[in-house]
What does this fold into?
Amino acid sequence: MRYSKEEKAKWLEDWRGSGKTAWAYAKENGLVPQTFTNWTKPRSKNKQPLVEVPAKTLQSSRHIMEIIMEKGEVKIHVPLTIDGEGLQKFIVTLAVAL
It folds into this structure.
């Protein structure tokens, strides 16, 4: 079930006054505990944009093998030639952006 921002705010306000853990409060009120505890976590307002991480490619290769991840209109291309450090930077940047 989806809740509006206003509904979430009312649930959170009531929970804060209850003195109960988020998990216990959610169970007692018929909410999904995992979802409710996610509502209690602070959201970052300063999301960083995705940045390009240069990948080392083989000079002799004309076609770069890659993994393409798609969601909606967003496509993320990860070349299979990316080294460990580049992949780590990519994953950290992606985690921060999401």
